[in-house]
Amino acid sequence: MEGAEVTVVLAVLVSLAALFVTGDTCDGVPTMTWNETCLRACSTPARYNLCGETLQHEAERAEVTVYALAAARRAARAYDDTVDEAERLILGGKVPGGERPAYQRCIVDYGAARTEMAGVATDMAGCDFARTRREYWFAASALNGCGFLLKPGSPLATRNAADRDLTMLASDLGALVLLHKV
Predict the structure, then answer these.
(1) Cα–Cα distance for residue pair 81/138, rounded to 1 Å
(2) In this structure, which of 16, 24, 60, 99 has its CB flanked by the most CB atoms within 10 Å?
(3) How many structural domains is the chain composed of?
(4) Please, what sign has the CA dihedral across residues 128, 131, 137, 140?
(5) Do residues 150 and 161 touch, judged by C-beta distance below 8 A?
(6) For residue 77, what is the domain's CATH number?
(7) Contact 125, 69 (CB under 8 A)
(8) What is the pTM of this model?
(9) Is 127 left (phi over 0), alpha (psi -120 to 50) or beta?
(10) Is residue 19 part of a domain?
(11) Is 48 inside any structural domain?
C-alpha cells in the first residue's frame, strides 16, 4: 500500500473506533455518562457500586449500549473464571463431599449462560435486540440453576452469587437499551 492509502485506511479505522467508543451506534438509544447510567439502572447501593466498578474504564459519556456491552463482556469473563475454578477444584480433588455432580452440572450451566451472554454482546454491538430479553433471562436461569445445586458455603457458591449479581447488572443495563428499542 502507498502512504496515502495507508493514511486513508487508518483514518477510517480511527473514525469507526471513535464511533464505537462514543456509542453513536444504535438509533434511538440514549447517551449518558456512566454515572447517570448506573443511577438509572441500579436499585441498590451494592448494585450501583458494582456498576461503577464495571463501567469505570469505559468512556465517561457514551450510548447506553456501550455500557450494556461492557457489562455483558465482564459477565462472560466472570463465567469463564468460575468454570476454570470449578474445573481446578474437581481435578484437584478439593470439591466438598458429594458436590462433584453439582460442580459438573454448574460447568454445563455456566456454558449455557456464557453462550447467552455472548449473544447479548453480539446484540449490543449490532443493534439487534430481538433476542436480548430472552438471552438475559436464560443466562440468569442457568446461573440460578447452578446456585440451587450448591451447598451454602461451598467454594463455588460464593462465586455463583457474585456472577448472578453481575448478570443482573448486565440485564439492568440492557433494560435501559430495550426501553428505547422495543
Answers:
(1) 19
(2) 99
(3) 1
(4) negative
(5) no
(6) 1.20.140.40
(7) yes
(8) 0.83
(9) left
(10) no
(11) yes
Q: How many residues does the chain have?
A: 182
Cell readout for 67 is: 455500557
Among residues 66, 41, 64, 38, the alpha carbon closest in space to that of 52 is found at 38
Q: Decide if 106 is inside a domain.
A: yes
Q: Return the H-helix or E-strand segment holding 93.
A: none
In single-letter form, the type of residue at position 99 comes to E
Buried b (16+ CB within 10 A) or exposed e, 139-154: bbebbebbbebbeeeb
Q: Is residue 138 part of a domain?
A: yes
Per-residue pLDDT of the chain (182 residues; tens, 9 = 90+): 554 443 333 333 333 343 344 344 798 899 999 999 999 999 999 999 999 999 999 999 999 999 999 999 999 999 999 999 999 999 998 897 789 999 999 999 999 999 999 999 999 999 999 999 999 999 999 999 999 999 998 889 999 999 999 999 999 999 999 987 64
Place of cell 458436590: 99
Which residue type is seen at 71? A
DSSP string, 143-175: HHHHHHHSPTT-HHHHHHHHHHHHHHHHHHHHH
Q: Cα-flanking dihedrals φ and ψ of residue 96, to 5°?
A: -55, 150
